[in-house]
């Protein structure tokens, strides 16, 4: 029976440590000097090197979603509303969440493994001894890069996903490019685009913070590095759904008002 209370204590302790780590990031995120060179390098790694994976996944999702939904829409005589439905669902939910989950797997695990390896090989301790601020150089730059680049990756996934959907509509229903995207832009409202864009910044924050936290506090040994990379993906994915729930809830309240 002591197993459950111990797990609760461990969970609360981990939550407290994570909150302290997050607070430390916000304290140093806007303080000079800024590590511009390292942050730009991380933006390239996180954004450009993830673009193909995100775009290809969005394209396939656009194809599959349209193929799955179109027969039902045709059955109810609503095939003309396919661009409307795909556009709203992709912009509001599928694009941001799908991109965030892919980045949680690719970027979160990469950051966790990289910082975990540096922790195990005592490179972080060496940076502290040499007078460098390792937290600002390693953590702040990576988190900022995630926050900055994730909205661009979401936009890329949305555009490519809608293009994939258009290809199916063009083959099945002979819908022209102009007609398809005119319908998409006509039905989209500010209340659809702005919340999706805003929550993508928070998705980037979650992925960056979790990946850095797990790697920066990795246990000794190669097993600890593997565990840091694995738990970074799991925890980030769970937190993404929590953030998404509250983002949709808040957006719905403002949309109704």
The helix-and-strand class reads mainly alpha
> Could you give the count of β-strands?
0
Helix content: over 70%
How many DSSP H or I helices?
8
| Rg from Cα | 21 Å
Assembly form of the protein:
single chain
Stretches where pLDDT is under 50 for at least 5 consecutive residues are none
Order of helices and strands: HHHHHHHH
What is this structure's SSE topology?
Layout: H1 3-28, H2 36-75, H3 82-120, H4 123-129, H5 134-173, H6 177-187, H7 190-216, H8 222-256
Helix pairs in contact: 2-3, 2-5, 3-5, 3-6, 3-7, 3-8, 5-7, 7-8
Structural key phrases:
257 residues; mainly alpha; 88% helix
Explain what this protein looks like in three dimensions.
With 257 residues, the protein is mainly α. It has one domain (36-256). It is 88% helix and 0% strand. The chain has helices spanning 3-28, 36-75, 82-120, 123-129, 134-173, 177-187, 190-216, 222-256. The longest helix is centred in the N-terminal third of the chain and has 40 residues, at 36-75. The radius of gyration is 21 Å and the shape is elongated. It starts with a helix and ends with a helix.
Compact description:
The protein has 257 residues and is mainly α. It is built from eight helices and no strands.
């Amino acid at each position: 029976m002591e197993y459950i209370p111990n797990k609760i204590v461990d969970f609360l302790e981990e939550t407290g440590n994570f909150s302290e780590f997050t607070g430390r990031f916000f304290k140093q995120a806007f303080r000079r000097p800024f590590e511009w060179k390292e942050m730009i390098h991380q933006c390239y790694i996180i954004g450009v090197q993830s673009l193909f994976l995100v775009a290809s996944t969005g394209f396939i999702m656009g194809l599959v979603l349209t193929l799955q939904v179109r027969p039902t829409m045709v059955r109810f005589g609503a095939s003309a509303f396919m661009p409307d439905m795909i556009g709203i669902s992709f912009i509001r939910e599928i694009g941001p969440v799908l991109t965030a989950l892919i980045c949680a797997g690719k970027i979160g695990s990469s950051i966790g493994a990289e910082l975990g390896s540096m922790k195990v090989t005592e490179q972080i301790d060496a940076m502290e001894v040499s007078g460098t601020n390792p937290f600002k150089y390693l953590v702040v730059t990576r988190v900022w890069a995630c926050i900055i680049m994730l909205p661009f990756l979401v936009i890329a996934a949305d555009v490519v996903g809608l293009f994939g959907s258009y290809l199916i509509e063009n083959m099945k229903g002979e819908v022209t490019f102009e007609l398809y995207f005119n319908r998409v832009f006509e039905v989209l409202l500010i209340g659809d685009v702005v919340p999706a864009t805003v929550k993508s910044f928070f998705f980037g924050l979650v992925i960056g913070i979790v990946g850095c936290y797990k790697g920066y506090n990795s246990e000794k040994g190669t097993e600890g590095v593997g565990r840091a990379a694995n738990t970074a993906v799991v925890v980030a994915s769970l937190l993404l759904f929590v953030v998404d729930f509250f983002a949709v809830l808040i957006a719905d309240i403002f949309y109704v008002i």
